[in-house]
Write a structure and sequence with these properties.
single chain; about 400 residues; alpha/beta; Globin-like; Elongation Factor Tu (Ef-tu), domain 3; Rossmann fold; 11 helices; about 20% strand
């Protein structure tokens, strides 16, 4: 790998602001350029995020962050690890990086033209090669540790409706082998062919049960869409077109959002909507291990009709002496029972449950819509919780910062 010179570092850093202004224009053109030359790569990218523009925006922010910190890559924190897990879940391999680099740099030239001189383009070429080698190295370790390579066929052993919006799929390897292990909080990618798009589409779903080797369980929310939001291609195919006995192709579990099972300190799980899925896995694991850790399970949803795992959570709170539950319903319906189905009306308000969530040395795990996670993290930090003890999971193209 060619090392960046001091002049090249200065050139990359100096041109970083270009991505603050023109980044999304460049990345949109990049994707168009790359897909025109390599249409097979559409199978690796969420085409809904392409159409909405959220994926190009996310890539533009990532390129800007890399360029702005080219002389201090440690400032990127866990971003490299986070992206590497996503890449490994999608089965992105070393041979893909030269293709991406060629078209990304080509898009820079196409959009900016004479504003980019050859020396600056050369500096960006070396910078991209450096980043590619970093990502390839991290991803190689993930692939080496994974229980299987690529997408593996699984058979749907059971399909269980969990709420009006969420359905669980119990998946066992089609060849009868063990399902393999994972860490509670991790996710898998599931690949389905979408007729409307003419390509395979991968979607990432958190595993929602404890690891035990017999099956993997994912719990999928039907994305019905709205006036300005397209229905979810894969989620609707899973709900309407995948029944017991069907074969789906699944990647190995990935994700750095995972329960630290070596600790004995308290755990606070905070979820909104379908964000309950990794929390269910974490709680189920603690219960299966007969852990003595103190656990507070905070969940928010609209009402009982969309509250997945409602009865399981109620039983768990009754059976597991170390568990405290705080369920918030924003729009309570007539059939919802306070104290049984839910505990509080309205949105999550940590001030109402402060004694149950502000626990010494606790770790906080948050999953849900981006705005929900941002609000909960800010509320915790305002109460003096160290950011290092707050863990979040983000899917799609959302960003907390």
């Amino acid at each position: 790998m060619t090392a960046l010179t001091a002049d090249q570092i200065a050139r990359v850093k100096a041109t970083a602001p270009v991505f603050a202004v023109h980044g999304t224009t460049i990345t949109k053109h990049f994707y168009q350029r790359m897909f025109n030359a390599h249409p097979e790569l559409k199978n690796l990218f969420n085409q809904t995020h392409q159409q909405s523009g959220s994926q190009p925006e996310t890539l533009a922010r990532a390129v800007y962050a890399y360029a702005a910190n080219i002389d201090n890559l440690g400032a990127l924190g866990g971003a490299v690890t986070h992206i590497a897990h996503k890449h490994a879940s999608l089965n992105i391999r070393p041979e893909h990086y030269p293709i991406v680099g060629r078209h990304l740099l080509g898009a820079v030239v196409d959009v900016l033209g004479d504003a980019v001189d050859q020396a600056t383009l050369d500096a960006w070429t070396v910078a991209y090669e450096q980043l590619a080698q970093i990502m390839i190295g991290v991803e190689a370790k993930l692939y080496e540790a994974a229980p299987w390579s690529g997408f593996r066929p699984f058979k749907v052993m059971r399909k269980q409706v969990e709420s009006d919006e969420i359905t669980s799929f119990y998946l066992a390897p089609a060849d009868g082998a063990p399902a393999g292990g994972f860490e509670p909080g991790q996710y898998v990618s599931v690949k389905r062919f979408v007729d409307q798009l003419g390509v395979d589409q991968p979607r990432q779903y958190s595993l929602s049960d404890a690891p035990h080797g017999r099956w993997l369980r994912i719990s999928v929310k039907r994305e019905a869409g709205a006036a300005d939001v397209q229905p979810g291609h894969v989620s609707n195919l899973m709900h309407d077109g995948v029944e017991q006995g069907a074969i789906v192709h699944v990647s190995a579990p990935m994700g750095e959002f995972k329960l630290d099972r070596q600790k004995s300190t308290p755990v606070v799980l905070i979820s909104g909507g379908v964000g309950i899925t990794p929390m269910a896995s974490m709680l189920a694991t603690l219960m299966a291990e007969r852990s003595e850790r103190q656990v507070t399970f905070v969940h928010a949803c609209r009402n009982g009709r969309v509250h997945a795992f409602r009865d399981w959570l109620r039983r768990s709170a009754a059976e597991y002496p170390n568990l405290k539950r705080a369920v918030f319903y924003e729009a309570v319906s007539a059939e919802d029972r306070v104290g049984a189905d839910y505990d509080f009306e309205g949105r999550v308000d940590l001030a109402r449950i402060e004694a149950d969530v502000m626990l010494p040395d606790a770790d906080y795990y948050i999953c849900g819509p981006v705005a929900f996670m941002r609000a909960q993290r800010e509320a915790l930090v305002a109460r003096g919780v160290e950011p290092a003890r707050i863990h979040t999971e983000i899917f799609g193209s959302g960003m907390l910062d």
